[in-house]
């Protein structure tokens, strides 16, 4: 059985079922998500390999070979057409795309294996989000519902709000109690749990809640496993938060009881839109990774949720490599040789804190060679990727800021570490490497008018221009000039 068969057996059926990694019904063999590639903007549906099975990641890899791909739709497997697409602008924020829509996620930012078979999750960077404002069967008002999601316990931030669940149909904050969604992260504006986080909490609008009190519930623990199962459910005068490790063990109850101690939440005023990766008003500062999740009609029992958790554990989520192409070895010293025709006498180099391209060769003065040379370090923000420390300015690393590459001293912050973490992959033009930004996996090292950026093909910035994209993002990562 799949998670939705289990919920149905408890008379709390799925009314939305989203999973880019696998089918969530035993009998489901249809489309899981749609990708769009950069080379010709063509789209392709990715389905399960078999009924109830894992996604056909090989079909994505083949369709996206030598180009970029984003996730344009996360299909609803429940049959209710509650599909998720990039979210429209909201009361708090417009997204970066034209019309104020949020960014679609990279199709390759969150690879995993399920029982050894490769699949891809949905890597949400700030600015990325999905929504459906015209749903069918999702709870409204004070009606009962449940939901769970499988998330990456190591990808989070303190921004508002990496959510999955029930939100406003107007994309605006219409008041307390108008949302009921899973939240995951370290936001401390409203509630918190114990330790430093990240925590599973509930976004009930105008607040992230860990329990009855507005502030801390010490029974809501810091959740540190690589894969996290998060569950929230609500019915009249009762709600609960539960969580656990998606790879082993059961679910624990972090809160179960009456609605929060504040006006507006009892009764609830749920509106029935579905969001992923954003707040109810399209607040787009949150980050996280979503692999699978559902929303139910009716309040699932703990026993049903425990069976769903056992099903998730049996799916055997595991990590896999985020890199490909020629090896970029930790400890080696490298220089990034441009491959764009007309620019092959150039390397990426820094001039103070600016990252530019520079005409340099083995016969250049050592200062010029040093500015184009970097020591490969274990990724500051993710150990499966790498960071690049300047050879002539030790302690300073290549990082992106506002998507512009800079050379900055490591300030020890989470955002610096993540902005300085890159995942080399096989070069998009068919040679060398393309260097993907770990935290913004639609974006890659690119030179544009001889300045360094992290660029997404056809994205909203001038330096995202599609012209010469594959060549501009492809570098020969060579033994360093200095
Ligand atoms: O409740 C927290 C957030 O507050 C909601 O997600 C958003 O709509 C509002 O800004
Ligand atoms: O480069 C994109 C973002 O810009 C970085 O992640 C952040 O530090 C800055 O605001
Ligand atoms: O960075 C040099 C060139 O500037 C790039 O190849 C091109 O995209 C832009 O015109």
Give the tags.
mainly beta, 9% helix, binds alpha-L-arabinofuranose
Topology summary:
Blueprint: H1 3-9, E1 14-19, E2 31-37, E3 43-47, H2 57-63, E4 69-74, E5 85-86, E6 105-106, E7 111-114, E8 117-120, E9 122-124, E10 130-132, E11 145-152, E12 163-167, E13 180-185, E14 199-203, E15 208-209, E16 227-235, E17 238-245, E18 251-257, E19 273-276, E20 288-297, H3 302-314, E21 317-319, E22 333-338, E23 346-351, E24 354-359, H4 366-371, E25 374-378, E26 386-390, E27 396-401, E28 404-409, H5 414-419, E29 422-426, E30 433-437, E31 440-448, E32 451-455, H6 469-472, E33 475-479
Antiparallel strand pairs: 1-20, 2-3, 2-4, 4-6, 5-10, 7-8, 7-21, 9-20, 10-19, 11-16, 11-20, 12-13, 12-19, 13-14, 14-15, 16-17, 17-18, 22-25, 22-33, 23-24, 25-26, 27-28, 29-30, 30-31, 31-32
Bound molecules: alpha-L-arabinofuranose (3 copies).
One alpha-L-arabinofuranose is lined by residues 400-403, 415, 419, 439.
Commentary on this structure:
This protein has 482 residues and is mainly beta. It has six helices and 33 strands. The chain has helices at residues 3-9, 57-63, 302-314, 366-371, 414-419, 469-472; strands at residues 14-19, 31-37, 43-47, 69-74, 85-86, 105-106, 111-114, 117-120, 122-124, 130-132, 145-152, 163-167, 180-185, 199-203, 208-209, 227-235, 238-245, 251-257, 273-276, 288-297, 317-319, 333-338, 346-351, 354-359, 374-378, 386-390, 396-401, 404-409, 422-426, 433-437, 440-448, 451-455, 475-479. The strands form eight sheets. Strands 1, 9, 11, 16, 17, 18 and 20 form a seven-stranded antiparallel β-sheet that branches. It has a seven-stranded antiparallel β-sheet with strand order 5-10-19-12-13-14-15, with no helix packed on it. The longest helix has 13 residues, at 302-314. The radius of gyration is 23 Å and the shape is elongated. The mean pLDDT is 98. Residues 340, 343, 447-450, 467-468, 472 line the site of one alpha-L-arabinofuranose.
């Amino acid at each position: 059985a799949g998670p939705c068969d289990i919920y149905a057996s408890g008379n709390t059926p799925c009314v939305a079922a989203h999973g880019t990694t696998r089918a969530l019904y035993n009998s489901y063999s249809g489309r899981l998500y749609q990708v769009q590639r950069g080379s010709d903007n063509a789209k392709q549906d990715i389905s399960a390999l078999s009924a109830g099975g894992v996604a056909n990641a090989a079909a994505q890899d083949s369709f996206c070979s030598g180009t970029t791909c984003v996730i344009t739709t996360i299909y609803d497997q429940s049959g209710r057409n509650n599909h998720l697409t990039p979210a429209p602008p909201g009361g708090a924020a417009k997204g970066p795309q034209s019309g104020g829509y949020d960014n679609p996620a990279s199709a390759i930012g969150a690879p995993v294996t399920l029982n050894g078979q490769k699949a891809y999750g949905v890597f949400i960077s700030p600015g990325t989000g999905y929504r459906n404002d015209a749903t069918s069967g999702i709870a409204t008002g004070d009606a009962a519902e449940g939901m769970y999601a499988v998330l990456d316990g190591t990808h989070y931030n303190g921004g508002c709000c990496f959510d999955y669940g029930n939100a406003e149909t107007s994309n605006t904050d219409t008041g307390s109690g108008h949302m009921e969604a899973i939240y995951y992260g370290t936001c401390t504006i409203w509630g918190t749990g114990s330790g430093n986080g990240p925590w599973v909490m509930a976004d009930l609008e105008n607040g992230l809640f860990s329990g009855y009190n507005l502030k801390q519930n010490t029974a809501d623990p810091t959740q540190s496993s690589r894969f996290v199962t998060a569950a929230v459910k609500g019915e009249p005068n009762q709600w609960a938060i539960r969580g656990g490790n998606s790879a082993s063990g059961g679910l624990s109850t972090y809160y179960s009881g009456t609605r929060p101690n504040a006006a507006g939440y009892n009764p609830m005023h749920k509106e029935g839109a579905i969001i992923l990766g954003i707040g109810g008003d399209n607040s787009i500062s949150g980050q996280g990774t979503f692999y699978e999740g559902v929303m139910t009609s009716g309040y699932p029992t703990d026993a049903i949720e425990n069976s769903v958790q056992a099903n998730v554990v049996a799916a055997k989520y595991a990590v896999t490599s985020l890199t490909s192409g020629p090896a970029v070895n930790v400890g080696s010293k490298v220089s990034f040789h441009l491959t764009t025709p007309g620019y092959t006498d150039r390397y990426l180099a820094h001039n103070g804190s600016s990252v530019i391209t520079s005409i340099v060769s083995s016969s250049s003065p050592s200062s010029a060679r040093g500015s184009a040379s970097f020591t490969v370090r274990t990724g500051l923000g993710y150990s499966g990727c790498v960071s690049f420390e300047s050879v002539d300015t030790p302690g300073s690393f290549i990082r992106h800021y506002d998507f512009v590459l800079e050379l900055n001293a490591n300030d020890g912050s989470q955002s610096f570490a993540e902005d300085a973490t890159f995942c080399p992959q096989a070069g998009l033009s068919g040679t060398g490497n393309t260097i993907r930004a770990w935290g913004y996996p639609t974006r890659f090292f690119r030179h544009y008018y001889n300045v360094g950026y992290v660029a997404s093909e056809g994205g909203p910035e001038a330096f995202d221009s599609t012209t010469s994209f594959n060549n501009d993002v492809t570098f020969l990562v060579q033994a360093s000039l200095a």
